[in-house]
Amino acid sequence: MRIRSRKLSCRGIRLSAIIGGKEPGRIFLYIMKNDLHKEPFGFLEDLFVDESARGKGIGTRLIKEAIKLAKKNKCYKLIATSRHRRKGVHELYRRLGFRNHGIEFRMDF
Predict the structure, then answer these.
(1) I need a surface site. Which of 26, 28, 79, 100 has the fewest CB within 10 A?
(2) Is the distance from CB of 17 to CB of 24 less than 8 angstroms?
(3) Burial 17-27 (b: 16+ CB within 10 A, else e)
(4) Rounded CA gap, 109 and 100, in Å?
């Protein structure tokens, strides 16, 4: 057997919340394709809201904007990841229409 590789491209979009010239929050949206669908899918990564700014709707606004961009880019699905211990973020994702669909595995280098 041999393994063949082929480079694919994806597009990354960094969304920032700006308040008073500062950035208390951010999220990354990646638009990618696979061979299962003609349409791309979206992948959310690194949602962050500074502790002093939490509870003010910043994360909600960032996620909603990412959802709009995923729809605008005709994504057939949007995946969001979160660590097990981030229960508040899990609830936020659920409140915005995401559902727990599986488990994520990770390998750090």
Answers:
(1) 100
(2) yes
(3) beeeeeebbbb
(4) 27
Residue 83 pLDDT level (bands cut at 50, 70, 90):
confident
User: How is residue 16 written in tokens?
Assistant: 């920032």
How far is residue 56's CA from residue 22's CA, in Å, rounded to a whole number? 15
The CATH architecture one would assign to domain 11-95 is: 3-Layer(aba) Sandwich (3.40)
Q: How far apart are CA 72 and CA 56, in angstroms?
A: 26
Please tell me the pTM assigned to this model.
0.90
- Which tokens go with 18? 């700006």
Domain ranges of the chain: 11-95
User: Hey, what are 36's tokens?
Assistant: 């299962």
How many angstroms separate the CA atoms of 2 and 43, rounded? Answer: 29
Structure tokens at 89: 């973020």
Give the residues across from 87 on adjacent strands. none
